[in-house]
Amino acid sequence: MPRPDLNLLVTLDVLLTEGNVARAARRLHLSPSAMSRALARLRETTGDPLLVRAGRGLVPTPRALELRERVGQLVHDTEAVLRPAQAPDLAQLARTFTLRTSDGFAETFGPALIARVAAEAPGVRLRFVQKPDKDSTPLRDGEVDLETGVLGPAMGPEVRVQALLRDRFVGVVRAGHPLGKGKVTTKRYVAGRHIAVSRRGLEQGPIEQVLGPLGLVRDIATIVSGFGTALALARATDLIATVPERHTAGLRGGLHTFPLPVPVPEITVSLLWHPRLHADPAHRWLRGLVLQVCAA
Fold first, then answer.
1. In whole angstroms, what is the distance from residue 15 CA to residue 50 CA?
2. pLDDT value at position 8?
3. The whole model's pTM is what?
4. C-beta of residue 229 within 8 angstroms of C-beta of residue 102
5. For residue 166, what are the contacts with CB-CB under 8 A and spacing of at least 6?
């Protein structure tokens, strides 16, 4: 059986509402002859005359009366489906959003973000999960709603990206460390023992890329996978941690922070999400909150 032309539903709704071919034609911006042809198609499709002449007008058949309310509801529901999504009722929104972030994001930006969410949408809960790599599979599979991080080659090409903040690297040592007094020169910085941060356990990173051309090499005492671990070790030892300044602000309390004596390029931390959530009103609202909190 051939699939019926669903555009005829709108025509049928208007015809049954108006009960008049000329008025229905004006509502749909058609000529009377075009509307008459549409009525003929509807009669053929439904197997019923639908509107029959009575004197100088038309009256609906029993089948038309049966269809009138159902067709009107169908057209209304279809228009609602195809209409752009409306802004969510935040007071009634009940949803859990999963954010995959690297060390420091929840500690630094989480309190303000949670407070904003609670004030605007008390039924929304945020779930922060760790980010062991830059693979975009969790975003693609729907396990994660939002992600933060520096873009890398493992990121899927379809992922949407919005820059959150620019960050610079700083040196961090425990309170009372010798580098806490006086200017930290390149010589003093390189002379210390360091903590390297690498998810893949590599010694070479952005610091080595700057020191290498100068003929300098850091003494790497240990390699860890995250900035939070690096700061915890720096707090308990004489080792030097080199971490992003803004991204770790919530983790560096009680530690001494100093500018690096070498010009290490800044990094851009971005907000990432999958395209299927791009137009979702609630997701759009949350993205806006994250941007505002990180910009503050």
1. 9
2. 86
3. 0.67
4. no
5. 266, 267, 268, 269
